[in-house]
Amino acid sequence: AGTVTSDYLFCEGVPYQAKLGSYYYYDGAVANADYLYQMLNTTVDETYTVSYWLFNLGSGTSSNTDVFVGY
Questions:
Q1: For residues 13 and 29, what is the distance between their CA atoms, to the nearest angstrom?
Q2: Does residue 22 sit in helix, strand or coil?
Q3: Disulfide check for 9: which of 13, 16, 52, 56 has CB 3.0–4.6 Å away?
Q4: Long-range contacts made by residues 6-15, C-beta under 8 angstroms, separation at least 24?
Q5: Is the pTM here over 0.70, yes or no?
């Protein structure tokens, strides 16, 4: 499990901080799945944009990301 934080983090010679906004999720999972979720209150007939930025400091292996939006 990782950590949701707004603090500046320096780990293994790499600085970590939010790309945009105030918070980010830092995790060191290797070869295992990890999960995040967020509940959003919405209003009928409104349009919403959900975005994220993924950074992988790994050893060259790819990262897979699945995003599910539903109710």
A1: 18
A2: coil
A3: 16
A4: 12/57, 14/57
A5: no
Given the DSSP bridges, would you call strands 9-11 and 14-16 parallel, antiparallel or unpaired?
antiparallel
Beta carbons of 5 and 24 less than 8 angstroms apart: yes
Residue 30 structure tokens: 């290797």
Residue 65, token pair as written in the block: 């990301």
Q: What is the mean pLDDT of residues 31-55?
A: 83
8-24 burial code (b ≥16 CB/10 A, e <16): eeeeeeeebeeeeeeeb
Element of type H or E holding 5: strand 3-5
**15-40: per-residue pLDDT in tens?**
888 877 788 887 777 777 777 788 88
